[in-house]
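Intended use. Records like the one below are meant for learning the mapping from a protein sequence to its folded structure. Do not use them to infer anything beyond what is encoded.
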Amino acid sequence: MDNVARFLRQHCETLVKDVGIEAAAAASGKSKATLGRYYSSDPDHAERYMPVDVVARLEAVASFPHVTSALADLRGITLSYDGTRLNSKPGNVNADVVALSQRFAMLMAEYNQAIADGTITINETKRLLAETHAIQQVLLDMKLHLEHGHA
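Structure written out for the chain above:
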C-alpha cells in the first residue's frame, strides 16, 4: 500500500472513530464491517476506499472534517474551518443580498481607512482578510439558498 493510500485510510479511521462506530454506521447507512474495510490495512481491502457521499455524511456529524482536511493537505491547500457555521442557515436570497451589501460596505470602509496613510499594515491586512472571509460566507449562504430554492 502506498503512502497516499495509508494516509487516507488513517484519516478515514479517525473520522469513523470521531463519530463512533455505531453512530457512523447509522449516519452513513453502511455496516460497521463495511466501514472497517474502508480503513483496513489488510491487502484484501487495498482497493476499497470510502465513497465521497459516505465521507460527507460522516463529516456532517463529526467534530472535524478529517478526510477533507487530509485531501487538502495532499494538494497543499489550506482550508479555513469554522465549526460554528451551518450549511442550512435560515433566510433567503433577499436577506443575503442585504447582508452582502453591508459586508461589502464594511470592506470598503476598512480599505479606505487602511490606505489613508499610503501603507497597509499587518493589522489592517488582517481586518481586510476578515471582511473578505465574511463576504465569502455570505456568498456561500446565498449559493445554498439559491440551490435549495429559498429565493
